[in-house]
Amino acid sequence: MNGRRASFHGRTHSHLDFDHRDSSQISLEQAIKPVQINGSRQRGGLSNGYTSNPRGFLDRKSSSPMLPAFMTSAPGKVIVFGEHAVVHGKAAMAASISLRSYLLVTALSKSRRTISLRFPDISLDHTWEIDALPWTNFSHPSKKKYYYDLVTSLDQDLVEAMRPHIATISPKASPEVRKIHQAAASGFLYLFLSLGSQLFPGSIYTLRSTLPIGAGLGSSASISVCLSSALLLQIRALAGPHPDQPLLESELQVERINRWAFVGEMCIHGNPSGVDNTVSAGGKAVIFKREDYTKPPTVTPLRNFPELPLLLVNTRQARSTAIEVAKVGKLKKSHPVVTNSILETIDKITESAHELVRGSGPDGPDEQTLEILGELINVNHGLLVSLGVSHPRLERIRELVDLVGIGWTKLTGAGGGGCAITLLKANTEKEDLSLLESRLDEEGFERFETTLGGDGVGVLWPAVLQNGTDEEGGEEIDQEKFLNAEGREGVEQLVGVGLQERREGWKFWHC
Questions:
Q1: Would you call 276 a catalytic residue per the annotation?
Q2: Is the distance from CB of 452 to CB of 310 less than 8 angstroms?
Q3: For a disulfide at 460, which of 71, 294, 297, 490, Cβ 3.0-4.6 Å?
Q4: Which of these is catalytic: 17, 22, 121, 276?
Q5: Where are the extended beta strands (E) located within 82-201?
Q6: In this predicted model, what pLDDT tens digit does every residue of 125-151 receive, in sequence order?
Q7: Do residues 221 and 276 make contact, with C-beta atoms less than 8 angstroms apart?
Q8: What global pTM score does this model have?
C-alpha cells in the first residue's frame, strides 16, 4: 500500500464455467482466471449485482464441480508504541503478530440453500436459509454496494432489515454471551448480504482462532479480514496471491479486503479506528494518526518492518478500554500541562522508533538498534504508568521479565489489565526463557511465544496441506478435522501458517 490510496472502478462480470475435473484440483489461479466475454477478457464472478445475467454464477453446467474447500487466515495485532497518546491526536505504531484466525469455507450441494457460521471457540453455531434473508433491501438500487465500493458507514435501514435474522441467534445463552454472538454474526451477515446475492451457493463458514478473545489483540479485525477475503474470493473479486503478482496489483487486493473488513468492524464496534483491520490485512506494521475525528486517519504502512521475536503475556485481568481512556482524559483535565507533556513525549518515542525501523536493513535491526528499541519500550511503559493505566498484574509481568533479564516489557493496548509484550534480547538463552515461562505459568498468566511484524492475510486454496500424513497429495482439511482440532495448539498443528518458515500451500499478498 505504501501510503497510496487504492481506487476501484466498476466492471461487468459474467459466470465462470470450470473444466470437468475433481474440484480439489482446481487452483486459485484457475478459479479466478480471465474468461472471454464479448470479445474482452474479464474475471468471472458470483452475481454481486454487477452482471446483466440475473442468474449470474449459478447459471452453469450441472456437471460442473463445486468449488473446493479453501481457507483464509489473518493475524492479530499489538500496539508497539503510542497507546493512549493516539487518542489525543498523536501517532501510534501497531504491528501484526503471528497469532492468527483461520476460516474454512466449505461449499454445499446445490440443493442445500443455507449458510452456516460456526465459531466453536466462542460456542457460536447458527444457520440461515439463504432465500429467507433480506435480499430485497440489500439489492435495492439505492442501497446496493459493489465489491469495489468504499463504505465508510453502515446503512441503518439495512441494519434494521438484518435485525430479525440476528435476534434469533443463541436464544438460550447468557445476555453477555449472546451479545458477543450477535455482534460476530452481524459482521458476517452484513458482508454476506452486501457482497453476495440470493443465488449464492450454500456454504459453511467455520472459524478458529489462536488469538485470545477480548484481550486487545485485534481478534475481531482478524476475523473480519478472514471473512472479507473469503467472500471476495467467492465472488471472484480478487486476483492472486501468486509469486509473480505485480506490487501494485497486490496492494489493490489488500486494500479491497481491508475496506470490507472495516465494514465488518463497524458492525461489531460501531466506530472503529481502522488500525486493527489495516494491520491484519496488510501485515507488518503501520504508523497510525488521527488528529481530526471528523476526517479519516492517516495510516502509513511500514513494509520494511522486521520480524522480531516477542513474548506476549495475557494477565487474564478483564479491562475496559473506555474506563482507561476516561482516566487519561480526567488527568488531562486536572493537570493539562503535565499530561500533555507526557503525551508529547510518548509521541516522540513513537517517532524515534519509526526512524529506527525505517533505517533497518533487510535482515532487521542489529543488536545495538534492538537495544535502543528496548529502551524506548521501557520508557514508553513508564509514561503509561504515569498516566495511571497500568495494573499490578502488568507490573508483575515486568518484574518477572526483569529478574531473568531477557527483554524489555510494556503494556499493550488500553492497559488496566489485558496484555503485555516483551521484546526478547538477541542473545536470549532457551534456559532463561523456559525459567521465565514456568514462573509465569505458576502465577496464572497466559503466555504466547510469537513473532512481531509477519505476513497479513493469506489463502490456502484448496484446503490441502503437507502434514506428513499418508494421504495422497497431502492432507485435506475438512470440517470434522478443523472442528476437532484441540485448542490453539491443535489448530496451529493442523493448519497454522508457520512462524520462521512458512508452511507450503499458504500464499500471501505482499505489499
A1: yes
A2: yes
A3: 71
A4: 276
A5: 91-107, 114-119, 124-129
A6: 999 999 999 999 999 999 999 999 989
A7: yes
A8: 0.83
